[in-house]
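Example record for the data management plan.
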Amino acid sequence: MPSPIPPTRLLPKDLYPSLDTGACSSPLSKHCSHGSTLQVPAQRLHGKVANRLWSSVIHWEELRWLQPVGSGGFGSVYKAGYLGETVALKKVKTCTKNRLASRQSFWAELNAAHLRHRNIVRVIAATTCVPAEFADEGRSIGAILMGFAGDRNLQQLIYCGTEQLSEERWLRYAADIAHGLRFLHANDVVHLDIKPANVLVSNEDVCKIVDFGCSVKLERGGETSVINPNLNHMGGTYTHRAPELLKGEAVTAKADIFSFAITLWQLITRDHPYTGDKQHVLYAVVAQDLRPPLSHCQLLLAELGRRCRTLLSHCWTGDARCRPSAQELVLHLEQLKSHS
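Corresponding structural encoding:
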C-alpha cells in the first residue's frame, strides 16, 4: 500500500519544520491523549474560540449538545456548542473499502486550515485522537472542528426549496463562490469538489465553501501539481469533474473553474446537469464535449442569460488554458451584476 501523504504536501511551510513524524497513526501526530496531537499553536482568547489561528487541541469536555447535521462516505457532521460558539464537528471515519482514501480525505481537509476568508468555512481545531465516547464505533481517523456556517447548502436550496432564486440572488451566490475560489487559488489551494452540496448558505445569506477532502495544495506559487500516485485526483463528483482530470492529467486551479460553471448552471436553471449512465456521461464529457444544455432554459435566453451563456462556455471549455482565472471570473461576475 502506498505511504500516507507527507505533511509537506498538505500544510504550509511555516507549520511542518517542527513536526514529529513518530508516534501515532498519523504523520502529524505526537501525543495520543484526549488533547493535543497536531503540532500547531493552540489558542484561547478570554474563553472564546480564537479567530485567527487554528488549534491542535479540541477540548472535548467543552462540547455541548451534539446534533447530527449530515453524513457521507468519509464521516459525519454535527452541530454543537463549543466555548460559547456554535460550531460544526466533522468526524472522519475509516472507510473499510479504501483506508488510504479515508486518510487522504482527512489530511486534505487541512489544506485550507490556515486560511481565513468570508466565503470559506474556517477550521478551528483538528486532531487525530478522538476519545472513545466521541468515536464512531472506534473507526475515527480524526476530527475537525469548524465554524458553523448554516443549516443548509446550495444543493438543498436549488432542488428542495420553494424560495425564488432571483437574478440578483444567484448572481450574488455565484460571486461569493468566485471570491472564495480567488482566495484559495491565491494561496495555492485547489478545492477539486466545487458543487452545490459543498457550498453552505449562512443565516446572513452568504455562501461559504466547505469540505476540502478532495483538495490539493500546489507548490508555493506554482500553477500545476505534479501527478502523485499516492493522491487520488479522481475524487470529487463526476458531474462536476473537469475533463483533464478524467484524462489523468495534472491538477491546475482551472479544474475548479470548470466545476464552478456546472454549479452556476444549476443555480440558474435549477435542473440536473446530466441524465443517463455515469460511464456514458464521463466518456461524453471527454470525447464529445458533453455539457449541460444552454437552450432549454428561458433564463438563459434573455439578455443576462446570453451573457451567462458566454461565461459558461468559457469556463467549461475542454482546454483548461482557455478558461478564465478565478480573478477574471470575479470581474466577469461583477460586470454581470452591474448589468442585471
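Summary line stored alongside the record: The mean pLDDT is 80.
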